[in-house]
Amino acid sequence: MALIHSTELLLLLILFLVSSKLATSHSTVRFLPGFQGPLPFQLRTGYVEVGESDAEEHAELFYYFIESENDPEGDPLLLWLTGGPGPLAFKNEEYTGGLPNLTLKPESWTKVSSIIFVDLPAGTGFSYPKTESDVHQSTTKLVRHAHQFLRKWLIDHPKFLSNEVYIAGDSYSGLPIPVIVQEISYGNEGGIQPWINLQGYLLGNPSTTSAEKNYEIPFNHGMAFVSDELYESISGINTGHVLEPYCEEPGLHKPMEDTWSWRRSLAHETSPLTLPPLSCRARAYVLCTYWANDDNVHKALHIRKGSIGKWKRCNSGIPFKFDVPSSFQYHVNLSRKGYRSLIYSGDHDMIVPFLSTQAWIRALNYSIVSDWRQWYYNGQVVGYTRTYSNGMTFATVKGAGHTAPEYKPEECLGMFRRWISNRPL
């Protein structure tokens, strides 16, 4: 019986490997519309098909892969779920129509790591469900698909099989990422191939316990914006970064709309989109919609023709079930398994205030290894940090908003560079 079991296991493994190879594709991208000259970094794009059984919904997940600009063979590999600190940005200049211009960002985290930016769940970005019956998504499905994606991607890119792997993201990713890390860990323990050299995870301003809104009142009170009694009358505040100007964007959202819903969706946009002024950060959010819907951009990225309709920066129009209300217990489980984690918070974010993140970390009740102290960059205090005996590091980023690397790119690269190399902040 043992021999039969081993043979069956080997056959299943072979079938998995074969199907994985057939279900992936990738292309090298050397030029991008809007960027002058050849790309000064290694970019590959492609699709990975996920859905392991006939009973499971299938999807084609699109990704951008950028090799580390330092040491691709030795540097860690990040799987990043939501946008992220990549090497390109839109030029903040007067827009006269046509294709927006791109510029190089020297603070990209690809300076010290390779990063796979994947569009998840299916139906967002350039990822798409295989059939109309596959459109329904959920947090748990996102977890399964991310796990399948990474193992198939590594089979298709075997030179990265030995690299240290971290799962990273911000905002809503605080709910699925700890679950993804646990599923990968269980897969390794169960012998699923290829084995993933999983080391830990990173989360920025993460949703965690579904209690984040409870901390908006004390956050606003502490910032001296309003009294508790007047909180309900607040409007006109940029909740992503409370000190930056609030920009009215007709057709995108209204001041009193749920900010989280707006940040996840341009589903109710008017056409054409109103371009915010140069002083508004949201200007780039509209420019990316122009850029990503250009036919020449689709050709350069090797997007499958007819696979999606109009590209949206964030798409909450897909049917999605939020079936992981809290990731707290997953943090507990991962800490027991010895995985490292970096949890960082832009301290001017009202969407997921740093107070809420501090609260659930405090509730873990782990011993403090290095107590609350300042951390520096270029001789200046740029935040505060604390490390715990469970391998977790918490850090604030002074002056940053909801997606900290977007607001403080240089400081956040310094933070990441130190943490990923096991140095204290």
TrEMBL record:
<protein>
    <submittedName>
        <fullName>Uncharacterized protein</fullName>
    </submittedName>
</protein>
<dbReference type="Pfam" id="PF00450">
    <property type="entry name" value="Peptidase_S10"/>
</dbReference>
<dbReference type="GO" id="GO:0006508">
    <property type="term" value="P:proteolysis"/>
</dbReference>
<dbReference type="GO" id="GO:0004185">
    <property type="term" value="F:serine-type carboxypeptidase activity"/>
</dbReference>
<dbReference type="InterPro" id="IPR001563">
    <property type="entry name" value="Peptidase_S10"/>
</dbReference>
<dbReference type="GO" id="GO:0019748">
    <property type="term" value="P:secondary metabolic process"/>
</dbReference>
<keyword id="KW-0732">Signal</keyword>
<comment type="similarity">
    <text>Belongs to the peptidase S10 family.</text>
</comment>
<feature type="signal peptide">
    <location>
        <begin position="1"/>
        <end position="23"/>
    </location>
</feature>
<dbReference type="InterPro" id="IPR029058">
    <property type="entry name" value="AB_hydrolase_fold"/>
</dbReference>
<dbReference type="GO" id="GO:0016747">
    <property type="term" value="F:acyltransferase activity, transferring groups other than amino-acyl groups"/>
</dbReference>
